[in-house]
Write a structure and sequence with these properties.
This protein is an alpha/beta fold. The protein has one domain: Alpha/Beta hydrolase fold, catalytic domain (Rossmann fold, 3-Layer(aba) Sandwich), CATH 3.40.50.1820. It is built from seven helices and eight strands. Helix 3 crosses helix 4. Helix 6 links the parallel strand 7 and strand 8. The strands form two sheets. It has a six-stranded parallel β-sheet, with helices on both faces. The chain has a two-stranded antiparallel sheet with strand order 1-2.
Length: about 270
Amino acid sequence: MFKLLTRTVFLIAGLVLFSGCDRNIVPIATPTVTLKPSTPTMTPTSTITPTPTRISTATSVPGTSVTFLNEDGIQLAGTLYGSGDIAVIMAHQGTYGATQATWQPLIPALIKDGFTGMPFDFRGFGQSGGPGRIGQLDDDIRAAAKYLRSQNYNRIVCAGSCMGGTACLRAAIDGEPFIGLIILASPFDASGGLVVNLEGLEQLTQPKLYITGNQDAYGIAWDIKRMYEFSTEPRTLLTFEQRAHGTDLFQTASRDELIDAILNFLISLR
């Protein structure tokens, strides 16, 4: 009973305090991440040792523009990079102006280490069609996975930033067979009905990498640490002393460490 009550309190607090990162949100001036003294200490279950020399210095690499339809018949636009056996869906955050391009800093290193990457624009964003509907973004994730399978990529990882990570988790909980999940600064509730529940997290058995800045400008560090706590093994929590949110971490001094951590996680899935 105490465990159930604790989970309920955590989830309600998360939904009330941190309600997503869609395009209309304005960053708060001061992060409000408060952990009660009784909160368990979050310790990564595996250690990631940065090796910055592996990071590619390339700023851009050639890719192939692709389009595919979601269940609503809306055309989504993405870019396919590399030709590795493991393909990574890269789902962007919802802060103003965000598109698939926010994942660009990771692409050269991803290809250098032999992976395939496919960032894409959610409905209503970037070059994709349709109105933006946050509550249906998990459908877009499933459409991206379906497209990759049609191209003979059967080992798929879903990486998402903020609402993109929530959409990845939602799709995985609903049965999308990802071999791994990379979640950057994602809320339990991304608004519009896109919600991740604790019971769903407990069902996910694939490896999971949770990432956040401890002083995330949108206050999402609380959500990520709760997600980590209630997830099953294997799981890893990586935090940075940064205010940058989601893929904005690629623009900070933590860039190389972040990229290296993601690469090491992907290599562990081979």
